[in-house]
Amino acid sequence: MSSYAEEIKRVTTHTLQEMKMRGEKISMLTAYDFSMAKIVDAAGIDAILVGDSASNVMAGYETTLPITLDQMIYHASSVVRGVSRALVVVDLPFGAYQGNSSEALRSTIRIMKESGAHAVKVEGGKEIRESVERILSSGVPVMGHLGLTPQSIYKFGTYVVRAKEEEEAARLIEDAKMLEACGCFAIVLEKIPAKLAKKVSESLKIPTIGIGAGAETDGQILVLHDMLGINKDFNPRFLRRYADVYEVMTQAIGNYVKDVRARDFPNQNESY
User: Fold this and answer.
1) What's the CA gap between 253 and 246, in Å, rounded?
2) E strand residue ranges, the chain
3) Do 163 and 267 lie in a common domain?
4) Which residue intervals of 192-238 are DSSP H helices?
5) What is the value of pTM for the model shown?
6) pLDDT tens digit sequence for 131-162
7) I want to staple 55 with a disulfide (CB 3.0 to 4.6 A). Which of 64, 82, 136, 198 is the partner?
8) HSE-up of 251 (CA within 13 Å, CB side)?
9) Are residues 187 and 271 in the same domain?
10) How far apart are CA 88 and CA 118, in angstroms?
11) What digits encode the pLDDT tens for the residues 199-240?
12) Computed from CA positions of residues 157, 162, 165, 169, in that sequence, does the dihedral angle turn out positive or negative?
């Protein structure tokens, strides 16, 4: 009888491409630690993003900019150890690839060697083309990211929907086609009009993964802590909460505190 590990078929970049060709939607979530990654993987997710959103949800920063390469490697390593099936993609953090393709390659090699991840993700279009090509030349799969790019939040000055105007929309389509031509295996489209996301998805052979980009992308991604209701402070229009884990946890912890104070825990059966 084969073992559980042998029965599991790994999701690869090729798997995602085949899913797009068959018209099957791709499911993707973030994860940042071993325990949560193990649960997400066991639930049947196709891909996990070790996002630089760890800067927000794990470290409490206002933006994604402060998180370092070392910290991303730590989170990625933890996730990889908990995953048996899903494709694990890791964000290259701010400053690890912009404007210097040699630095981009060094950062990528560290992530791949030290974490065991399967691919990296970068934000931007033509301005990072050289870095994308340099990483791809090393054989590492690259996922692109267009639309609202959180690492550029100080340039945008706001988290509003991007590419609503014709000029920016045309530039996004051009960047998407460029990333595909370079060899990227997929592109995240964040917070852009649904009609534009549909147009981009139909014009590309590689999969698109949407977040706040409507239903016509080839897949969807959400931040795990948002969709589970752990984070109660973030309520964008595109977010659907699938649980209220915040309430479950606060109630459980409150009950524990009450039992300890009442000397009800541990009881005789819970003692040696």
Assistant:
1) 11
2) 26-30, 47-50, 87-91, 119-121, 142-147, 186-190, 208-211, 219-222
3) no
4) 194-203, 224-227
5) 0.94
6) 999 999 999 999 999 999 888 776 766 678 88
7) 64
8) 5
9) no
10) 5
11) 999 999 999 999 999 999 999 999 999 999 999 888 899 999
12) positive
Query: What is the Cα–Cα distance from 228 to 137, expressed in whole angstroms?
Result: 38
Domain count, the chain: 2
Q: Are residues 235 and 257 in the same domain?
A: no
Q: How far apart are CA 42 and CA 22, in angstroms?
A: 23
Catalytic site residue from 103, 114, 168, 190: 190
> What tokens does 257 get?
């505190």
Tell whether 149 and 188 lie within a shared domain: yes
In contact, 46 and 16? CB cutoff 8 Å: yes
The range of the structural domain enclosing residue 119 comes to 4-241
User: For the domain that residue 20 is a member of, what is the CATH number?
Assistant: 3.20.20.60
Q: Give yes or no: residues 265 and 202 share one domain.
A: no
State the Cα–Cα distance between residues 145 and 94, nearest whole angstrom. 13
Question: HSE on the CB side for 268, CA within 13 Å?
Answer: 0
